[in-house]
Amino acid sequence: MTEPADTPETSDLLYEVADGVATITLNRPSAANSMTPDQRNELIDIMDGIGDDLNVRVVVLTAAGSRHFCTGADLRVSKVPESIRPEGAPERTLGDVGRNIRRGAQRLITSIMDCEKPVIAAVNGTAAGLGAHLAFACDLVIAADNARFIEVFVRRGITPDAAGAYLLPRLIGLAKAKELIFFGDDLGAADAERIGLVNRVVPADELVAATAEWTVRLASSPTKALTLSKWLLNRSLDSDRETALADEAWAQELASTTHDFNEGVAAFIERRQPDFKGW
């Protein structure tokens, strides 16, 4: 995927690529960075296209403003009916909600988890519902010290969506996941780091610099090795030992065919720093 030219600051979603880093910015601060269906679909398309873009070696997902990362789906945005309904049919029937979840929030989360490049969430404020899961789906999470994470669903009388019931037990264990989902309490950045939802918490005015520190390192790393490592780690959570070890051997086989593998070996023999290209 190539970098869009002259993305307007008024766009709901900003995207730029520089020095191997793709930065995606949710840009609806006046709406607490809640996500519209069009914005969600555009983000899915971007994530899907990043895999074969050799200009991109790491992705940063962040948001405009200083108060909100993403407060979930924007429920005020009306949805256009997908089909003309027979006369007398109700506005919503069995299957509609589940279908919308599968086509929407679940596709968004899996597009991040399945992205071939490392994805860093730079959480600048409140992340609630879908917004929290958007961060948890990323490979690494850096949060400003004023950030909050909220499993808001119970407050609305609904069950978690956007893969929350899948992600949380795998990240923090079943008991803690139940606590967050059952009560829906605000979880501060420091507590999120303590229980393992966040990798690093920094003062809000240091979030950009702290994120850049990691992106510089990842953008100069052997990208294909990172891709295979991400694949291995994600699969391991649902694999038995035999499958995990078979995957490991296969991933090592694939990695050994890359340019960066040969460069890494040569650099070791020649006692110099490797110059990884990303392929």
Describe the structure.
This protein is of the alpha/beta class. The protein folds into 2 domains: 13-78 and 96-219, 2-enoyl-CoA Hydratase, Chain A, domain 1, CATH 3.90.226.10; 223-270, Orthogonal Bundle (Lyase 2-enoyl-coa Hydratase, Chain  A, domain 2), CATH 1.10.12. 43% of the residues lie in helices and 15% in strands. The strands form 2 sheets. The protein has a 6-stranded mixed sheet with strand order 1-2-3-5-7-10, sandwiched between helices. Helix 1 (37-50) packs parallel to helix 2, helix 4 (164-172) crosses helix 5 (174-183) and helix 8 packs antiparallel against helix 9. The longest helix has 18 residues, at 96-113. The two termini are 16 Å apart. Mean pLDDT is 93; it is low at 1-8.
State the CATH topology of the largest domain.
Answer: 2-enoyl-CoA Hydratase, Chain A, domain 1
Strand content: 15-25%
Give the beta-strand count: 10
Overall number of domains: 2
Q: Mind telling me the CATH superfamily name of the largest domain?
A: 2-enoyl-CoA Hydratase, Chain A, domain 1
Shape: globular
Order of helices and strands: EEHEEHEEHEEHHEHEHHHH
Across the major sheet, the strand order is 1-2-3-5-7-10
Uncertain runs: 1-8
pLDDT averaged over residues: 93
> Briefly, what CATH class of the largest domain?
Alpha Beta
- Measure the end-to-end span: 16 Å
Backbone CA Rg = 20 Å
Count helical runs.
Answer: 10
Q: Provide the helix percentage.
A: 40-55%
| Main sheet specs | 6 strands, mixed
Structural class: alpha/beta
Proper CATH architecture of the largest domain = Alpha-Beta Complex
